[in-house]
Amino acid sequence: MFAPYLDRWSLIADGEPILTHSSRLLPVLWQDRPAMLKVATDNDERYGALLMQWWDGDGAAHVYAHEGDAVLLERATGKRSLLAMAMNGEDDEASRILCRTAARLHAPRPKPLPDPIPLTRWFRELEPTADKVGGTFADCSTVANALLSNPREVTILHGDIHHGNILDFETRGWLAIDPKRLHGERGFDFANIFANEELPTITHPARFRRQLAIVSMEARLEPKRLLQWIAAYSGLSAAWFFGDANTPQVETALTVARLALSELAA
C-alpha cells in the first residue's frame, strides 16, 4: 500500500505503520522534514484531504502532496497532548485551545471548497433511531431538527473537533488533522469538546457546567445554543454507536445528551 508513494514522492520510512478503521498511516521523512503518509480506506478520509488542502496550513497541518487515496501531511512532533492536559489539571486550557483552533478553521477563505457535505445529511441517522427507540434519542432529534431548520453563522466545519484531532506542532502551534469536510452552523464544531469518550470526566455534571461556561465564552456562543448543539451531537453520536451495537458508548453519549437537555430545561 505504501510502496508506490514512497517511491513517487521520494519518502523514507521513519517509523512503524499505524492502522485505523479508516486509513493506513506511515511516519516518513520528506525532504528531511518529518511527515505522515496517509492512505485512506473510506470516503470521509478522502474528502478530508481536500479540506486539508483548502486550509493550506492555516489552523491545520500542511498538505505536502495529494494523489488519489494518499495524502502526505506535515507531522506533529510536539510532546504536548490535549487529552493529557485535560486529564491532569489543565482541562480548561485544553478546551480553550480547541476553541481557538476551531475559530481559525472557520475563518473565511477566498477560494470555494468543492461539494462540502451539509450537516442535514450528516444527521440523517438520528431520526430513524429516534423513531425506533424514542426517549432521549427523540428529544435530541427534536433539538437537532430545530437547529438544522434555522442555521446561524454557516461555514465550513472540521466535523470532528476533539482532544485527539488537535495536535502539538511545536513552533507552528496547535493544528487540526482528520476533518470531515462538513458545511453548517459553526456551533456544531464545539459540541464534540463535550463528547470525547476517552475523557472519563465528560459525564460529570460539575465538569460539564464548567466547560459550558468556558467554551461558550471562548467560542462566543450563547450557552443555550451551545447546549442545543451538544444535545443534538450527542444524540447523533449515540445513534452511530447504537447502529454498531456498542452499548457502553451509547450510554456515555446519552448521558452527555441528558446533561445538556437538563440544563436546557432548567
Topology diagram in text:
Blueprint: H1 3-8, E1 11-13, E2 18-19, E3 23-30, E4 33-40, H2 43-55, E5 63-67, E6 70-74, H3 82-87, H4 91-106, E7 117-118, H5 119-122, H6 126-133, H7 135-149, E8 154-157, E9 166-168, E10 174-176, E11 182-185, H8 188-191, H9 205-219, H10 223-243, H11 247-265
Helix pairs in contact: 4-9, 6-7, 7-10, 7-11, 10-11
Descriptive overview:
By secondary structure, the chain is of the alpha+beta class. The chain has helices spanning 3-8, 43-55, 82-87, 91-106, 119-122, 126-133, 135-149, 188-191, 205-219, 223-243, 247-265, and strands at 11-13, 18-19, 23-30, 33-40, 63-67, 70-74, 117-118, 154-157, 166-168, 174-176, 182-185. A hairpin with a 2-residue loop joins strand 3 (23-30) and strand 4. Helix 7 crosses helix 10 (223-243). The radius of gyration is 19 Å and the shape is globular. The mean pLDDT is 94.
Question: What is Rg?
Answer: 19 Å
Main structural class: alpha+beta
Helix and strand element order: HEEEEHEEHHEHHHEEEEHHHH
Number of strands: 11
Helix content: 40-55%
Largest sheet: 6 strands, antiparallel
In percent terms, what proportion of residues is strand? 15-25%
Q: pLDDT average, as an integer? A: 94
What is the multimeric organization of the chains shown?
single chain
How many helices? The count is 11
**How far is the first residue's CA from the last residue's CA?**
54 Å
Gross morphology is globular
The low-confidence runs, each spanning 5 or more residues with pLDDT under 50, are none
Pfam families: APH_6_hur
Organism: Rhizobium croatiense
Protein name: 3'-kinase
